[in-house]
Amino acid sequence: MHDAIFCERVGTPAVGVMTAKFVSAAELMARVLGMPNYQFAVIDHPVSSASDAELEARAQVTLEAIQALVVQRQKVQRQKVQRQKVQRKRAQRQEVPR
């Protein structure tokens, strides 16, 4: 979780992945790191004793969750950029002498 949040802070897109057993710990870590609403993907627990087939199925579900988070974050980023453009245009109009 720490690495994913650090990457996001420096502008590198990242998605944290936690096993279901550690969701509360991941949420706490996100709060401690100042990003209480940080969303991450969750994979079923346990991983270490799962068979190859189980891991493959879990990985597929988790990958779909990661893709959904990436798409959501891209939409949010585009909206943010659009708002910034609008704000800059408004500021430029206010600077023009009349």
Q: How do the strands and helices of this protein lay out in sequence?
A:
Layout: H1 2-9, E1 17-19, H2 23-32, E2 41-43, H3 52-95
Parallel strand pairs: 1-2
Give the key terms.
3 helices; single chain; 98 residues
Describe the structure in brief.
Helix content is 63%, strand content 6%.
Helix content: 55-70%
Shape: elongated
Tell me the total number of β-strands: 2
Order of helices and strands: HEHEH
Give a written overview of the molecule.
The structure is a single chain. The chain has 98 residues and is mainly alpha-helical. The protein has one domain (2-95). 63% of the residues lie in helices and 6% in strands. It has a two-stranded parallel sheet with strand order 1-2. Strand 1, helix 2 and strand 2 (41-43) form a beta-alpha-beta unit. The longest helix is centred in the C-terminal third of the chain and has 44 residues, at 52-95. The chain is elongated, with a radius of gyration of 19 Å. It starts with a helix and ends with a helix. The model has no long low-confidence stretch (mean pLDDT 92).
